[in-house]
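In keeping with the milestone schedule agreed at the kick-off meeting, the structural modelling team has produced records for the first pair of proteins. Each record is given below as a sequence line and a structure-token line. The laboratory manager (R.T.) confirmed that both were archived under the project's standard naming scheme.
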Amino acid sequence: MVDVSGKEITERQAKAEGAVVMAKETLNLALSGNAKKGDVFAAARIAGIMAAKKTADLIPLCHPLMLAKISVDFEPDAALPGIRITANAKVSGQTGVEMEALTAVAVAALTLYDMLKAVDRGMRIEAIQLVEKTGGKSGSFKR
């Protein structure tokens, strides 16, 4: 891992996003709450939060971080059709929190796929990306 011990402790935040594209009927099923495996949004939210907390275990050379915040939110989008996912992460530390936000989105998307795959194997996970980050020596980034 990179030695960050000489870096100043600062508040750092990151926002990531992605989407799961699916058939219109699959989106309607997810929104109805009647998917065979249960509440797809609750399961995906918890999975994303848990994944963010385990990022250092999943991504080689990532520093383990004491997250102050991780949120995972969903926005149905009939135009896709599908579900847009946003994760926000926050930490006071010596290294950034981008990987945690990205991991939360990725695992939430995979969980949505898993929860709905019985009715739509053609779903696509798309556009997982860092939207913005603040804090640290490198400053801010906004897509």
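The second protein of the pair:
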Amino acid sequence: MLSTIQSVFKIPELRKRILFTLAILVVYRLGGHIPSPGIDAETLMTFFGERMKGSLFGLYDMFVGGAFRKATIFSLGIMPYISASIIMQLLGAVVPYFQKLQKEGEEGRRKITQYTRYGTVLISAMQALGTAVFLESLQLSARELVVPHPGMGFKLLTMITFTCGTIFIMWLGEQITEKGIGNGISLIIMVGIIARFPSGVVDEVRMLFLGQRNLFSEVFLIGLMVAVIAAIVLVTRAQRKIPVQYAKRVIGRKMYGGQSTHIPLSVNTAGIIPIIFAQSIMFAPATLSSFFPNSEFMQSFSSWLQPGTVLYSLIFGLMIVFFAYFYTAIVFNPVDLADNMRKYGGFIPGIRPGKRTSEYIDKVLTRITLPGAIFFAMIAVLPYFMMRGMGVQFYFGGTGLLIVVGVALDTLQQIESHLLMRHYDGFMKKGRIRGRM
């Protein structure tokens, strides 16, 4: 492993890409500490710590590395771009115009990217306006206001600041993708998530030295974390390979086809999107109740669906399974795959081409999606079990851990590709690192 790491920095191009990526990520983290004008950051952090736990704002703050509760210029993070990308994917499944763009190759992808950028600006402006209105409504007392001078000027200033911050982060991500290593947008999200890990580790060490925890429980906790990460890597890389045989064709004097290949169906085709959708919906009651602190009905309704309760965990898990099937049906079309196979003379042994092939692929995909969805539902519920049942002081598991593991695998895969291309040994002596795709 050490020799492989040394080999990484022996390749000038790879070394330059890695250092460029690290520099961009440092810029992103520095921007996450620049406060936005017109906001009392200390009052906001106090309010956030007291009332925003277990709400949609708490989830959002995790993705942006704590920038939201500090009200920095990067408060919205890259999430508006993610939302715009998901919307474009959904439109590509139902709107003929976007379906046509997806089939136009590089030119079509360039137009979709441009539309995604426009959507990012629009979503950022709308979220910034909503955030400004929300911040103006926050107060700990008559004298402790989060926004000392509310009004239209503050709303416009917040919209401009937050929107420009999101656009700048989007540009940073594109620079990493083009000139660095790995997917820039994914790396920015990952850095925002892991930025909160060190404080949690320090809290655990402090509790150990104060006698609030014993050494055995800490060793058990570390072993559980390693086992969970290993299980996520295993399920993320798991594939069901469907064999495909291409018939031999004679064109002119040359013979084409005749080779055997396979269709790699991932156990987790939908990725982390089902957890994000389900978590956003499940956090809605707690988020709405924060706007109506004096309503007994809203407070009691929110208490029924508090994170960590049996009812919350059950509904949350069922929604993850539902959205896993829903999003898989959107991003993977067995009919198109079967048609392309028949067009190029491919067939699955024992299955007739055409409709029978699409039905077979859909049947296999339906079967392998269920265990993957159940596993990720368990991972999504894990943080609340650890925080309530084991007294863990930091958020481990759920969406954040899935993102970190998936992005790390993709980045290592790209680095290994550079090493193997230049005849260096990869990170694994046997086999190769596979990302989520």
